[in-house]
């Protein structure tokens, strides 16, 4: 029993630090607190901290330098192969149920390298960062982290973001939304996400990354979203076509979000 509890604590610390690295909160070159300080921060033993750090080091996310400390060495987990779903994602149907949004964080920060690159930001350009949980029928189903260039983010307030879809606020500022790139993959729930979505730490989730561009091909929104798979699923219709003598499957331009969640985050 004691061993199982220790393993659970190790995984909790590991996922907490991993989430902070992958989100850009801990950037490459950042020095982590000492093992005793980390143990105190997470209320665990130094043995637990060592095990968690060993796992992060094995994944190449940190580097432990004798006499110097432990440093962040990677900014993201390796990306998987991405399937092109752009046609299927072109038209999202309207939502069939009422939803609500709980705004957890709102502020202006320096963009981490991944967000800066995705949005094609100028050097030193800040972003408005928000964390929200979308709720349907009183139950949370998505955890949304968005970054918007500061020049756009200053056109709406924290209260407005808590009450209106983000893209609506962006378009209200005069920005003409043109296109987006989107990837869908799988992820494990870190402590913050797990608590917000009401799932266990380490539970499997659907993960979505979207970058939205204006007509001048400037990045205007970076979205990272996590979804409970029991409340959110994708369905794609395919048709068989002839293409240069080959018989291929081609997507029909329709996407349905499972369990009646019909496009809940289309405007997030």
UniProtKB/TrEMBL annotation:
<dbReference type="InterPro" id="IPR050679">
    <property type="entry name" value="Bact_HTH_transcr_reg"/>
</dbReference>
<dbReference type="InterPro" id="IPR028978">
    <property type="entry name" value="Chorismate_lyase_/UTRA_dom_sf"/>
</dbReference>
<dbReference type="InterPro" id="IPR011663">
    <property type="entry name" value="UTRA"/>
</dbReference>
<dbReference type="InterPro" id="IPR036390">
    <property type="entry name" value="WH_DNA-bd_sf"/>
</dbReference>
<dbReference type="GO" id="GO:0045892">
    <property type="term" value="P:negative regulation of DNA-templated transcription"/>
</dbReference>
<dbReference type="InterPro" id="IPR000524">
    <property type="entry name" value="Tscrpt_reg_HTH_GntR"/>
</dbReference>
<dbReference type="Pfam" id="PF07702">
    <property type="entry name" value="UTRA"/>
</dbReference>
<protein>
    <submittedName>
        <fullName>GntR family transcriptional regulator</fullName>
    </submittedName>
</protein>
<dbReference type="Pfam" id="PF00392">
    <property type="entry name" value="GntR"/>
</dbReference>
<feature type="domain" description="HTH gntR-type">
    <location>
        <begin position="7"/>
        <end position="75"/>
    </location>
</feature>
<keyword id="KW-0805">Transcription regulation</keyword>
<keyword id="KW-0804">Transcription</keyword>
<dbReference type="GO" id="GO:0003700">
    <property type="term" value="F:DNA-binding transcription factor activity"/>
</dbReference>
<dbReference type="GO" id="GO:0003677">
    <property type="term" value="F:DNA binding"/>
</dbReference>
<keyword id="KW-0238">DNA-binding</keyword>
<dbReference type="InterPro" id="IPR036388">
    <property type="entry name" value="WH-like_DNA-bd_sf"/>
</dbReference>
């Amino acid at each position: 029993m004691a061993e199982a509890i220790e393993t659970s604590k190790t995984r909790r610390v590991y996922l907490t630090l991993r989430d902070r690295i992958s989100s850009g909160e801990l950037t490459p070159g950042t020095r982590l607190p000492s093992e005793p300080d980390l143990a105190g921060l997470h209320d665990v033993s130094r043995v637990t901290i060592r095990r968690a750090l060993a796992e992060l080091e094995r994944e190449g996310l940190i580097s432990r330098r004798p006499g110097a400390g432990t440093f962040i060495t990677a900014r993201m987990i390796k990306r998987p192969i991405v399937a092109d779903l752009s046609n299927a994602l072109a038209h999202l149907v309207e939502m069939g149920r009422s939803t609500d949004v709980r705004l957890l964080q709102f502020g202006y920060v320096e963009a981490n390298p991944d967000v800066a690159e995705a949005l094609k930001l100028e050097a030193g350009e800040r972003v408005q960062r928000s964390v929200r949980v979308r709720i349907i029928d009183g139950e949370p189903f998505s955890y949304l982290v968005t970054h918007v260039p500061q020049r756009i983010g200053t056109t709406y307030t924290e209260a407005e973001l808590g009450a209106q879809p983000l893209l609506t606020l962006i378009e209200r500022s005069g920005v003409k939304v043109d296109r987006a790139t989107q990837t869908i993959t799988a992820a494990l729930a870190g402590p913050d996400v797990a608590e917000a979505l009401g799932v266990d730490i380490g539970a499997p989730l659907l993960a979505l990354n979207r970058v939205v561009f204006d007509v001048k091909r400037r990045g205007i929104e970076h979205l990272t979203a996590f979804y409970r798979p029991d409340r959110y699923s994708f369905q794609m219709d395919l048709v068989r076509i002839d293409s240069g003598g080959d018989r291929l499957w081609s997507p029909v331009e329709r996407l349905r979000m499972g369990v009646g969640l019909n496009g809940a985050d289309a405007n997030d």
